[in-house]
Each structure stands twice: as C-alpha cells, then as structure tokens.
Design a protein that fits this description.
Number of helices: 13
Shape: globular
Largest sheet: 7 strands, mixed
Number of strands: 15
Helix content: 25-40%
C-alpha cells in the first residue's frame, strides 16, 4: 500500500508563468500535497488522489503554457502543475462514499483530464473518477498513461465501417498511432497514413497499408487515390479541408468520395495546428460557426462533390471510452505507441525535453514522462 506523505509536501513540476518552456518549467520540492477538502463538497465525490506513475503529454499542455488561449484554458493561478493524462496508484478516495464506489485505495488506474490539462505532473495528483479506469495487469503504467491520453482515438475509430478505405493525416502522432490499430480491428479494408516518417507507419504496431511522406508527395494530388477514392479522410494534422475546397472550386477530381456516395471528412483540429484565441466569441467562431458552415455546405448544396464534414473533437466525461481502451489493450488489440525518445525522466531537464518534443509536433506516438516506478 502506498502511504500518503506525512509532511504533506511533494515534488512537482512548476510552471511559473506563460512563456518559453525552458524558462517557465522546473521540477521543485516542497510543493503542497493536494487535498480533496479543497474541492467543493458537491463535486468532491468525483475525485481521488493517486501516487503518480506516469504522465502523457498532449498538444493542450503546450498550448496552456504558451498563453495563446489563456482566457479560456489558463490555470486559476501561478505557479501551476501542468499535465493532465496520467496513471498511478489510488492513495485516497472521498470519505463516506460507500462500498459501491468504483475504485478503492490500492487500485492501479489510468485517467484522462476533465477540467483542464493540469495537476498531473507531480508525485501525487488529483484525478476525476468518471474518466478513470483500472489498468489490466498486462499493461504497464507508462503504457497506460499513453493509452489514456490517446483514448479519443477509440471514438474516431468507431466511426469507421468494415470495408472502408481511410486516409489519415498526421498518422504518426499520438492519436493516429492508436486509431489505426482500432480501425484495422474494425475491418477497414485499406488505411493510408501521411507522415514525414513513413517507415514507422508501416511497422508494427501501427501497420498502415500505405505510407506517404508529405515532404515528397502530396496525397491530395495522387492519381491512384483520385481513381480509387477514400471513404474517409481523418485529419489529425490540420489543413486538410482547405485543400479539398481548392480542388472543389477548381472543378478538379477529389481523392475522397462525396457525401452523396458516403464520403466523410473527420477532423479534430482547426485549419491551423497552432492557434490563438482570447475570447468566447473567437472560440465560437473557431469551433462552432466555421464547422457548422462546413457541415451544412457538405450536406446540402455541396453534397455531390464534397465529403460530409464533421468536427469530431469530443472528450466525453464518462468512463466508457477509458474502459474500452483498457479492454482493447488487455486483449492485445491496442498497443501503446510511445515516442522512442521517452519515457522522459521526472527531472527539470527531462520535463523540458518532453515539452519541447511535444511542441515540435513531430512526435512518434505519445510523449510520456515517468514520474515514479
């Protein structure tokens, strides 16, 4: 059993302000141990404290630190503890929750962030039980953190039907490296991936059927794809839709089927991977108005030539996705894809290297920091 520290302090990453990774991030001792009593009573039953084993980074971790979306995603105060997707051992659950509580002290669990990607990169972390699941014995804590962070891949893969041809943009990142495994299990007939590291896409556990190096070839202009169109384009890199619109307006042949023929375009990003938003109206423009216009156009007057557009960025606050993720991992259907430069050590330099790699957007799988064994 993991004991709660008597001193009520811990070692944690501290982000002292918005700005440069090397200037703002450091690992420090003597940071206040988290307390469930600090959470409002009406919400307290949903939270637990874990002894952290590993933390997987995502694009949101770098975006919060940058301050580009500070009014919407910024921490309540500085310094703050970054990181949100993690794994570890439960050391504390709410008082008086009864025997039906889904977790107990001593459980090894993985969790995804809910209210914001923060508070995980520390010896002890508060997690939300609704997006948490027990880790199968066959899965390591490092792998579990990566799988928890990539769990949205399950939702995307479930949109693919047996026999469909799929093109994945941003195929080698954290989501793409896991989505391809589930899409294959669901019976996709052909999955092509776009990356600047094509050899990795072809190797296990990814196993794409075709890999395109975007530094050498443009998949949107490849004759073989225009002749044998994709059923689905999954854009994890950003910028795919404007390329389709360019062909549409020029009257050119597309590489994906139209809405009328069952074609779909799924994306989890705006048109630019790095964006700046400082107000609710701006966020509504980015994430509601533009996607709604594209969805309408592709379903109505553009349905004969454009694929059905769906902005599929969804992170449901429920356990079912985490449960499916861990079940697939337990069966061996889904294997964690972790960038080979990691897992990074829980040191100031290790954390900074991990964040710099995440910031580069040239990642082979998930970036993971190992906090403890």
């Amino acid at each position: 059993m993991v004991a709660v520290p008597e001193t009520k302090t811990m070692t944690a990453v501290q982000a002292k302000d918005y700005g440069d990774i090397d200037e703002m991030l450091s690992v420090q001792e003597g940071v206040k141990y988290p307390s469930l009593d600090d959470i409002p009573a009406r919400k307290r039953k949903n939270f637990m404290i874990i002894k952290t084993h590993a933390v997987a980074l995502a694009c949101g971790d770098c975006r919060v630190l940058s301050g580009l979306t500070r009014e919407l995603q910024g921490p309540p105060s500085f310094p703050y503890i970054p990181g949100g997707d993690c794994s570890g051992i439960v050391v504390e659950i709410p008082k008086d929750v009864g025997d039906n509580y889904p977790f107990k002290v001593g459980d090894r669990v993985a969790a995804r962030f809910v209210e914001g990607p923060r508070d995980a990169l520390a010896e002890y972390a508060v997690i939300h039980q609704a997006v948490c699941e027990k880790i199968p014995e066959s899965v390591s804590s490092v792998d579990a953190a990566a799988l928890a962070s990539a769990s949205p891949a399950i939702l995307l893969a479930e949109r693919i039907q047996p026999g469909e041809r799929v093109l994945v943009l941003g195929a080698g990142g954290g989501v793409g490296s896991h989505a391809v495994q589930v899409m294959r299990d669901r019976g996709a007939s052909f999955i092509a991936g776009v990356s600047r590291s094509p050899d990795r896409l072809l190797a296990p556990p990814l196993g794409y059927d075709r890999a395109i190096d975007y530094t050498k070839d443009d998949p949107f202009s490849m004759a073989e794809f225009k002749k044998n169109k994709f059923d689905v384009i999954l854009d994890l890199a950003s910028g795919g839709w404007p390329k389709l619109i360019k062909d549409y307006e020029a009257g050119g042949e597309s590489i994906v089927k139209s809405t009328s023929d069952g074609g779909r375009f799924l994306t989890v990003t705006p048109d630019t991977a790095i964006f700046e938003i400082h107000s609710i109206p701006a966020a509504l423009h980015f994430f509601l108005l533009i996607p709604s216009w594209r969805a309408a156009k592709s379903r109505l007057w553009g349905r004969s030539r454009l694929p059905k557009y769906t902005f599929a960025m969804s992170l449901p606050d429920e356990r079912s996705v985490m449960t499916k993720t861990m079940e697939l991992a337990s069966k061996g259907t889904l294997k964690a894809a972790i960038d080979p430069k990691g897992p990074f050590p829980f040191t100031t330099e290790g954390v900074r290297k991990a964040f710099r790699l995440q910031e580069s957007r040239h990642i082979h799988g998930k970036v993971v920091i190992e906090v403890s064994k």
